Amino acid sequence: MESNAGTTEPRSNLTASDGAQVTALESLHFTDEIHRLISAPVTDSSTSFMALLELPPPQAVELLHSSDSPKLLATSSPNVEDFKGSFHFPSNTGLIERDARFSGEANNSNGKRNSPEPKDLSANPEKAVKSEPAETESSQPLVSDPALEKRSIKRKDRENKVKGSTKKSKTAANESSEDAEKLPYVHVRARRGQATDSHSLAERARREKINARMKLLQELVPGCNKISGTALVLDEIINHAQSLQQQVEFLSMRLAAVNPRIDVNLDSILTSESGSLMDSNLPSLVMPVMWPEVQGNGHRQQYLHQWHVDALHQPVWGREEVCNNYITPENSLLTYDSSTNSETLHANQLKMEL
Amino acid sequence: MNKYNPPRMNPSSLRSRFATRFLRTLSKINAQKPTSSSSPTEIFRRYRRIKAAADKSMAYSVRSRRTWSRAMLWKLRTRPCGRRSVKTSTIIKSREARKTRHEKQNKNTTTTTTTTTGEDGVVFGVEADELRELVPGGEAMDLYNLLDETAHYIKCLTTQVQVMKKIADFYSP
């Protein structure tokens, strides 16, 4: 039988300390196989495998010692079965524990390099455990096969879990790194089908930030909500800002032209202005009305002449925005002159409104 | 009869701050001018002063919280009168230089990325330059900050226009 042939080989390899045990358990075939397994990793290179098999050999030795005197000498198939079952079970749990531990470590660490490692780890115990039931096949095939199947299924599940977890861990690590870098910023999660590169993630975050700002600007600038496309929206924003700047210029020109006639008490002005400012907001229709007038000519000096026209126009649609209570005093102030009487009248009337 | 209660004004809002400051400077300018001032040149000169006053009061209302206000203040300080307040201008200039240098570094690192990111980056490159010209101090800003500053600048411009319009309406019949 092949088992007998196998026994001669490890016996020659075994040390003197093991020799006594081997001679005691010669009748049992699987002990030799176990010793072969124990000696095998010495020839193998991977240290993880060594670490994996740290547990089983001492356990195996323990079990051998424990089951040595009482049971094994009265060898019968049920004892062998029990021993086998008991032996397999802790080794399986030990191997599974080791595997789980290593897969857990793979989860914690980062990068792709972990994904092949768990596979290796799972592959090696698979090999090891497969060889164990292989030698028991001769005696108990029924017990070993379902156990092997279970083990292979378990390992496959663990592999899948490891694969999924590496992906999750990458995104989690990227997320955590992003969070660590910029805490108050929005979390970015790599969606399905998107690159999980740290560069692309950062770029995507940046693009999302810029798009959020663009939305804000769209809300600020009237008439931008209907426009689609960032270039057109930006053009609209630029036009709006330019128009506002020009309006400021025109208004200051107007104030420069109009003001010489006026000399009003500051406090009253302030109170009146504060009241009037609160009441009305600048409607959007005002600006389009201003705009064609602005585009009419390009020279600054000509604006002075235009403003006399504007001054006539302004009260017409300027009053649309002003609160009703303020129209009446302004109407009364049409006959305005620089005398102090009119000032006080003006101020008093406005104060009354407040 | 319905009683009309004017809503209480927020004394620390941008609008009130700008209004008070601008009115103060306006009254100062009005006090300075001579009585006979209907010539265009005089009006033009006053226009320039009023415009500067408006910009300055707006920038002062925002203080140094925004880049554009800082840039505008610096421009206003250094441009008209170079002879006086040189110390403050140099201090501000050094601060601005440090800031712009830092921002330029950011700009150098980010403009490359803006051009490489898909459509958005390439498109923004053209309009972003126009925006930078519009917004004071926008030359040395990356795109995100530029959009931020633009939003705030537009908001402040609208308040400025509203206040000045009110004042102009108030003064002119």
TrEMBL record, chain A:
It comes from Hibiscus sabdariffa. Residues 103-182 are annotated as: Disordered. This is BHLH domain-containing protein. It is found in: Nucleus. CDD domains: bHLH_AtBPE_like. The lineage of its organism: Eukaryota, Viridiplantae, Streptophyta, Embryophyta, Tracheophyta. Residues 194-244 form the BHLH domain. InterPro entries: bHLH_dom, bHLH_ZIP_TF, HLH_DNA-bd_sf. Signal peptide: none annotated. Residues 147-162 have a biased composition (Basic and acidic residues). Its main location: nucleus. PANTHER family: STEROL REGULATORY ELEMENT-BINDING PROTEIN, TRANSCRIPTION FACTOR BHLH48-RELATED. Transmembrane segments: none annotated. Keywords: Nucleus, Transcription, Transcription regulation.
From TrEMBL, chain B:
InterPro entries: bHLH_AtIBH1-like, IBH1-like, IBH1_N. The keyword Transcription regulation applies. It comes from the Eukaryota. It is found in: Nucleus. Residues 96-118 are annotated as: Disordered. Its main location: nucleus. This is IBH1-like N-terminal domain-containing protein. It comes from Hibiscus sabdariffa.
